[in-house]
Amino acid sequence: MNSGFEERKQKSYMVMRMTYDLVMAVLFLSMAVVMLFAEQLKLTQFEGIDPMFRYMFGGICLLYGGFRLYRGIKRQG
């Protein structure tokens, strides 16, 4: 009886963690798109930032968002 509760608790934690990883991946990938394509999207708030900083930060967000996406998907299998 106790092992059933622990199993459900562990499964619930895994689902919550997977959801968290996927949501964070979407947020980081969205930030990467905003930073990398600010001029094409005509976002004047981000056009004033130094282009080198924007591209570096966008690249870091892209890499970390990809990692979070991979980690979230990997947990499903």
Describe what you observe in this structure:
By secondary structure, this protein is mainly alpha-helical. It has three helices and no strands. Helix content is 84%, strand content 0%. Helix 1 runs antiparallel to helix 3. The longest helix has 35 residues, at 2-36. It is rod-shaped and about 60 Å long.
How many DSSP-defined strands? Answer: 0
Distance between the termini: 27 Å
Number of helices: 3
In total, the number of domains comes to: 1
Strand content: under 5%
- Largest sheet descriptor: none
Approximately how much helix is present in the residues? over 70%
Overall mean pLDDT score?
Answer: 90
Structural class, by secondary structure, is mainly alpha
Oligomeric state of shown chains: single chain
How large is the radius of gyration? 18 Å
The shape, in one word, is rod-shaped
Q: Could you spell the SSE succession in H and E letters?
A: HHH
| Poorly predicted tracts of residues | none
List the helices and strands and how they pair.
Elements: H1 2-36, H2 44-47, H3 51-76
Helix pairs in contact: 1-3
Brief summary:
With 77 residues, the chain is an all-alpha fold.
Descriptive keywords:
mainly alpha, 77 residues, 84% helix
